[in-house]
Amino acid sequence: MGSSARGGSGIGKVLRAPVEGRMWREFGYLLVGLPLSTLYFSLAITGVSLGAGLLVTFLGVPVLAGVLAMCRGFGRIERARVRGMLRQDIAEPAPIRAEKSGALAGMGALLKSGSAWRHVLYSLIHFPWAVFGFCVALVFWAYGWALLLYPLWFWVFPAFTDQPGLVLVQDGEYTFTLAGPLMIALTCVTGLGFTLATPWVVRALTTVDRVLVAGLLGPSRLAHRVSELESDRGVVVDTAAADLRRIERDLHDGAQARLVALAMDLGLAKEKLTEDPRAAARMVDEAHGEVKIALQELRDLARGIHPAVLTDRGLDAALSSVASRCAVPVRVAVELPSRPAAAIEGIAYFTVSELLQNISKHAQARTAGVDVWKSGERLLIQVCDDGRGGASALAGSGLAGLAERLDAVDGVLVVDSVEGTGTTVTAELPWRA
Question: Is residue 255 assigned to a domain?
C-alpha cells in the first residue's frame, strides 16, 4: 500500500511537471537567456578586441577596465535572473578594492581582478550554450504541445488544403500524412511523450546554467574558503569563551566556594582548639572531608578541560573511562592504527562525552555503543543507542552546537534518529596526524 502511494505520487509529479510554475520559470530563463547572452557576447568580444588592439597606446587600459566593469554588471543581472527564475541564491563576488585612491589605481585593481576576468569569460562562453539551450528547449516544448494537441487542430488541413492531414514525407508518388484515427492517436501519444520529457530536459539545461553562474559569477573558491574560515574562527572563539565562562563558573560556585568555607571552618577550629579540643577535632575531621570533595571537584574540572588519561593512553582508554560513567551500559570499540593529532583527539573525546551525556539524560536507552575507526585521512566516530529517538540537529539544540564546533575543524556531524527506533550520530573529523 505504501509503495502504491509512492508510485502514484511519482506519476502525479511527472504529469504535473509540464504545467508547474518551476517548468515555466526555467523555460522562460532559457528563452530570455538567448537575447541577453547575444548582447553580452557582442559587447564583451567587441570591447576586449578593441582594448587589446589599443594596448599599444594608453587608451587600451581604460577600455579594458571599462569592459571588465561592464561584464561585472552583466554578472549582477545574471545572478538576479538565477535568483528570481531558478530559485538559487548565488553569493556576490568579493568587491574590488584598490590599494590607493584614484582612477589609475581603480583601473589597475580591475585589471588584476580574477573575478572580473571570470565575468568576461562567462559573457563569451555562455553565448553558444544559450543558443543550444534555447533551441533544444523551444523544439521540445513546441513539438510536444503541437503534437499533443494535434487532434484539436488537424482539421485545418482538409478544411483549407487538399491534404487530409499534416504531411510528414512527400517523395514523388509516396506521401506520409498524419491522418486517420490511428495516426492521430499515435501523434497525440508522441506529443505527450515530448511534453512530459520537456520539464526534465529544461531542468538539465538550467542545471548547466546554475553551474556556470555559480562557478564564474560567484565568489572564487579561495574567497569562499576565506569566508568559511572566518566563520569557523568566530565559532571557535565563541566556543572557547563559553568554555572559559563555564570553567570560571564551576570554580566560583564549586571548588572556590568550598575552599572558602573550609578556611572559615579551620579558623573556627583553631579558636576552639584550647577551649574545646573535641569540638575542634570534629571540625577538623569535617574539614578533611570537605578537602576530599574539593579535590574531587578539581579533578572533575581538570578532566573536563583535558583528561590526563587521554594524553597518557589515547582515545581507547579515555572513551572507556567516559563510557563507564554513562547511565547505561556502553560498548566501546576503537580501531586506530595510530593516534591522530592531539587537537583532533581532544575534539573526538569531547564529542563522544557530550553524546553519551545526551544518552544518559534524554535517550531513555537500555544500551549504547561507541565505534571509532580511521577511513583514509578521516577519523570516524559513531555513537548509537536503542532509546526513544527523535533527536535533531536543528538550530538551538545541543547537537547543532556540536555540529558547529566540528565544522570549525572541517568536520561533519550526521544525525539519524527516528522516533521509537533509537539514534545514531556519526561524526567525521580530519586525521591530521
Answer: yes
% of the chain with per-residue pLDDT over 90: 37
What local confidence, expressed as pLDDT, does residue 230 receive? 55
Say whether both 205 and 79 belong to one domain. yes
Q: What is the dihedral of CA 232, 237, 241, 244, to 10 degrees?
A: 100
| pLDDT tops 70 at residue 242 | no
pLDDT for residue 365 is more than 60:
yes
Element (H, E) at 18: none
Dig out the grid coordinates for 232 from the structure.
Answer: 569557523
pTM above 0.70, yes or no: no
Q: How many domains does the chain have?
A: 3
Q: What is the pLDDT of residue 44?
A: 95
Phi, psi of 339 (to 5 degrees): -95, 135
pLDDT at residue 371 greater than cutoff 90: yes
Nearest 10 degrees: CA dihedral of 371, 374, 380, 386? Answer: -20
Q: Average pLDDT in the 246-261 region?
A: 68
Which tens digit of pLDDT belongs to each residue from 125-143? 999 999 999 999 999 999 9
Cα four-point dihedral sign 163, 165, 168, 173: negative
> Other C-beta atoms within 10 Å of 106: how many?
16
- Find, among 19, 28, 140, the residue nearest to 86 by Cα: 28
Q: Tell me what pLDDT residue 190 has.
A: 93
For the chain, how big is the Rg over CA atoms in Å?
35
Q: Could you give the CA distance from residue 155 to residue 131 in angstroms, rounded to a whole number?
A: 34
| Rounded distance between C-alpha atoms, residue 206 and residue 85, angstroms | 10
Structural domain of residue 145, as residue ranges?
A: 11-217
| 1-35 residue pLDDT tens | 444 444 445 788 888 888 899 999 999 999 999 99
Burial readout 278-313 (b: 16 or more C-beta within 10 A, e: otherwise): eebeebeeebeeeeeebeebbeeeebeeebebbeee
How far apart (Å, rounded) are the C-alpha atoms in residues 182 and 150? Answer: 12
Q: Quickly list H helices, 86-113.
A: 103-111
Are the C-beta atoms of residues 220 and 40 closer than 8 Å to each other? no
Which three cell numbers, joined as nine digits, stand for 304?
573536563
Q: Are residues 80 and 140 in the same domain?
A: yes
Residue 369 lies in a domain: yes
